[in-house]
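If you are new to this repository, start here. Below is one unmodified record pulled from the training split, so you can see the exact layout before writing a loader.
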Amino acid sequence: MTGVGSYGALGSSQGRAQVAALCALTLFYAAIVAWLVQLPYDIAGGVLVAHLLALVTVPMLLWLERDGHRALRRLVVVGLGAKLVGTLARYAVLLSVYGEGDALEYDRIGTQLAGSFAKGDFSVDLGQRVIGTGFIEILTGLVYTVTGPTRLGGFLVYSWFGFWGLYLFFRAFRLACPDGLHRRYGLLLFFLPSMLFWPSSIGKDAWMTLMLGTFAYGAAALLTRRPSGVLWVVVGTAGSAMVRPHVTVIAVAALMLAYLLVGSGRPSYARPLSKVAGLAVLAVVFFLAFGAVENYLRLDEETSVDDVFDRTTERTSKGGSEFEAPGARSPAELPVAIFSVLFRPLPFEAANPLALFASLEGTFLLVLFIRHWRYLRNLVPRRRLPYLTLVASYSLMFAVAFSNVANFGILARQRTQLFPFVLVLLAVPLPRRKGAPHHAGTRRTDQRRNETELSAPVPY
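And here is the target side for that same chain:
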């Protein structure tokens, strides 16, 4: 009895200490928030936006992951918290280190547009085309019409866009590769420094992450014979084409190649017709996107692909972080282009702290690819071949196009549109053991192996 009473007293004492600590933390947090809301609305509005987004997002994530593994639920919620930290870091670096940038210009113009929008006046003259920079200016004005002109709040809203894009990439991989290493992919996707930092400010990167994630989820649905994917693909295509139509063309072309490999399922007379119809729709989308590219890049009949690449190199070879871009103009140059786009700058090429940080990340990814290379032979199984074809073809075409970027800073930011795709290759399933059964029990075996991977440390 004495032992039981002592244990109860100890448990009660620990419980009271935990409650007291929780109350102290709550009071401290409330005091910090009360102090922040006394600051100018540029900061106070951001604090309000952060709380509203958290109140909406966390319950939504828990609901969307209600049938998933507990480790994955925890991963996406912690990933949301990490995105907040990345947003604050991006905000602080931009203001304290650079003091200028596209995000600040979007904030300035968005504030002006929000004043007009709030009065019901939508007849604004941007002085430039809507596709590209103009679209982000209008979108920022619409955001500020809802939140009020708060720069920190704008950063948080755009970072929220980027987070949902990452989450859709995560769901796409789980849908298309149910036996993949989901936890490993989630850790890389949500916590890779580039994905935490660059698509976390007002600008094109966050919006493109959202739209490419929407596209990837729709593509995964289509490639697993789910018609609902059409709507997701259309939204992702239209949204990304409003900002960077050249990336949209790459994504749609990759989906067309992958769609050719989709199995027919149960034999029927309608299957071939539906596949032809699907390819026809994708072809129409591709040519519409290509038309947007011609307008965006101001191409004409006399402009060749080499001219576009040369123009890209010339425009990006300035700003203090320039280097000699490899430029993949032939298949023999492709390996060097892929290496450059994925892994450069190397540590000895870094000229400033941000470049050094990017070089350490690139080296880390290079080590991961070298160690995971032996697993890539497991890409062959038919059930995941279409999505992996999409990933591989998008990555190759992206590497060709962006190997002509001659500035490490621009390259580090632009390849956030590549990482969510190429990281899939680091999460392919482990090879099946020799003698493993290839029948209905295989799915249960894959499920058990995936659950083991969820509960085990990530084998880097």
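Two things worth knowing about this chain: The chain has 19 helices and no strands. The chain has one domain: 42-100+150-263+272-431.
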